[in-house]
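Possible race condition, two jobs.
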Amino acid sequence: ALNFSPIGRAIQINRRLDAEGLLEIRGEHADRLCYAATLTIDAAPEMEPASAELITLRIDVELMLLRDVPRLDVRLMVHNTLANHRLRAFFPLPFAAEAANYDGHFEIINRPVQDLPAISPPDGWAETPLSAAPQRAFIAAFAPQPPSDPLSGDESYALTRPGLLVGNRGLPEAEIIFSENGNTEIAVTVLRSVNWLSRADVATRARNDQQPMRADGLAMIGSYDAELSIIPSDSRTLNYTDGWAFSEGSFRAALTTIDDGSLPSSISLIRSSASIFRISAVKLPEDSARDGIIVRGCNMSDEPLTITLTPWRAFSVVDVVRLDETETGGRLAVEADGSIEFKAAPHRILTFWFHDSLN
């Protein structure tokens, strides 16, 4: 991994954006707020091009509210002219989070918030430990649990705790950092400009005897898009589904002829009884001779769950199949409404074949 090494004067360029040219656009399906922002940097010698002059990065910002969608989408167009830096978006929290939940591979990873050394490695460490961690679709943080009072029977610790989820499209680095006011902030890396793979003056390593090595072509000079979404959440509803929905993009509509049918005006192709069971695929079988649909999902939690899946219509048969869609011999009972119930172990991928074949 390419670890970020802050320069000695990094704190001097943590500045808020100055907005210019505010444009409000109201539409039938969405409202937008657009503006051009500038980030003025007093470039340090470690940055390139080395200059004593002020360097201005331009960032075009678009905020979008879709009708009846409970989130605020953020699009950033970064016009990068500077090498060797990291650009991050910060989302302040009105509380001091003790941990954060990161969307991972087949699980939601809970990581404690750590107040780690900023630059120099602690005694006995070869390199400064990092609090930044990988994410897939989102990072979420919630207010800490209030202490319980066992003598009075106070169960305030069980109350729903407010939180915030920040979704992304292809931005894999995030962390929780402490604010000056004692609270915490969600920090998502928008751009990493890497112009050196190794340097003798990397401050986060206790010993660096590697030869300097440039990484020409990784400086990310040019214009780049970054998309995020601010999603209100809490410890009860979690709203992970909204984070996955944003990350995966939107449905596309295609014009077709009008056909006879009995579908209602609104419908779910497949419905899960628990949002933490993430449906990752609803598709036609690979074997074109087969009818029906393939449904795949995973229990993202750390606990076994009993899950009910309900398709938009009842199928006669539901078989348990492998990832390659070969049959396991397992078959589930189908209820009158077409739903099935099963046990889902933590972090296990399950695949089902819904069909009407009676073989």
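Job #2 (started ~2 s after job #1):
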Amino acid sequence: MPPSLDIVIVNWNAGNLLRRCIGSIGSALTGGFTLNRLVVVDNASTDGSADHLPGNGLPLTVLRNDRNRGFAAACNQGAVDSRADHILFLNPDTELGPASLAPALAFLEEPANARVGIVGIRLRGEDGAIQRSCARAPTPSRLMAQSVGLDRAMPKQFPPHFMQEWDHGDTRPVDQVMGAFLLIRSSLFESLGGFDERYFVYFDDVDLCLSARRAGWEVVHFAGAEARHKGCGTTEGIKDIRLFYSLRSRLLFSGKHFGPMATVAVAIATAIVEPMVRIAHAIRRGVPGEAAAAWRGARLLWADLPAILPQLFRPPPPSRPMDNHPTGNR
């Protein structure tokens, strides 16, 4: 039997990007697999982007939340009751084509790739350039180097998070693929308990890929398929909030995967050093708007520290069975 696929898209005020994304899916159904479900989880959008979506004959289901539950929780929500062999988590600022799905699924189905659990593909920006979307697993030293900008000033000595030095032109195992297009075996996703919902957004894909590799699975960048990806399509206008959630998730990731001393060091670099570095860099470049956004993001993080800090030094909650997740309001 051909492999089956569920696609899950989490939407939050994506505007026309969501419609373009859904409209592109039909062109990617080029045979060799069955699309069981296309699930759009709307996180309380206020722009009407999830209204009257064009089904175009696709098996479309829209789940509406009365609040923004965050990316990780909404992904889990969309994956509930999946009966497909594989699940694709797809950002609404992506567009698929004939070379997006069938080649990637065929790669997963090859017997030689039986231990490949997660696949990402080449992502092209709006200008057609291949994005450097694969990343290295964070370590305490890497995160602290990023906080002070050493990954940008001295990339050879302090490699950046994303693998900028590699053109993504070949297929290879990597530490992490980007959550904008993350294809995973359903059985693996369920065994890992889905995404860790403590990450509201950011680092959820980092954490999932790390958990898969620790469980003995490979994460692979597959260069034989590609899609378009705008990037930051829904957060460009809220840079302060975007920074807050990025720094917050970094702290949670550190507390989950690093020891107490390393977590303290990363926390100091993240909560104190990095905001000041960002502000100073923006002022030096003459971009006061970015400096203000960095200041607001830092203040949001500082205000949330009383809630975050207790989570950094206690074991993470056990993974919940996927069928325990609420399904939201249709």
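The radius of gyration is 19 Å.
Logs attached separately.
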